[in-house]
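Retry 2 of 3 after timeout on previous attempt. Resubmitting structure tokens to design endpoint.
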């Protein structure tokens, strides 16, 4: 009987230590993820202040250093590239890796991309993706001239919301497009879908077809 009680006692202590270690890991994960959330918010603010066709390379370089951006060359040309040949591209990424590794939330990422050509910003995009029950995401892209022939277009779908705009979009439309919910990075168990990731775009939306809604900004 005594050996059994001793074994149970040891297992109980081991379980308590395991729970304590997991709680400590969770606290560390929340701390680092919160720092990532703050950094992502600062980046989003700086990204939104850039102007297509006006902002210069000198305004992008500090963002690369500050937010650990990675330069690459555009590998597409013609209709496949938002700026044509010869553009330089810098990518930024913010993830809740610690929170995900601790099993407190699904992997969630917020990213941004800036294209520069002839010393001018010619395209920018940003997005958020969550790997929960598959993949759900929001993608916002701003061109000098929109390929959809409208200054602003929002195709709302809970799994995949896509926003396309250009320099002709209004301040209100651009503000809604660049108002992603970065709290999805720190939310325990994560956000569900694009409706939580982009609440400003989905506010007062209405269904117009199966799996497709129309934004109040896209009337």
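Retry 2 succeeded. Sequence:
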């Amino acid at each position: 009987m005594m050996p059994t009680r001793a074994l149970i006692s040891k297992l109980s202590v081991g379980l308590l230590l395991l729970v304590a270690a997991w709680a400590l890991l969770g606290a560390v994960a929340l701390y680092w993820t919160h720092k990532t959330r703050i950094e992502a918010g600062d980046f989003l603010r700086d990204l939104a202040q850039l102007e297509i066709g006006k902002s210069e390379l000198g305004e992008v370089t500090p963002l690369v250093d500050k937010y650990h951006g990675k330069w690459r060359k555009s590998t597409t040309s013609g209709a496949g590239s938002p700026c044509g040949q010869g553009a330089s591209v810098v990518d930024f990424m913010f993830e809740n890796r610690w929170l995900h590794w601790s099993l407190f939330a699904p992997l969630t990422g917020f990213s941004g991309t800036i294209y520069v050509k002839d010393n001018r910003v010619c395209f920018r995009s940003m997005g958020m993706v969550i790997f929960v029950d598959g993949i759900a995401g929001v993608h916002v892209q701003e061109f000098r001239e929109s390929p959809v022939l409208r200054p602003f277009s929002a195709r709302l779908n809970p799994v995949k919301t896509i926003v396309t705009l250009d320099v002709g979009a209004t301040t209100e439309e651009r503000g809604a497009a660049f108002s992603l919910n970065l709290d999805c990075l720190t939310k325990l168990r994560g956000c569900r879908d694009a409706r939580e990731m982009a609440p400003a775009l989905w506010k007062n939306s209405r269904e117009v077809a199966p799996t497709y809604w129309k934004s109040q900004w896209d009337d």
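Attempt log closed. The chain has a mean pLDDT of 87.
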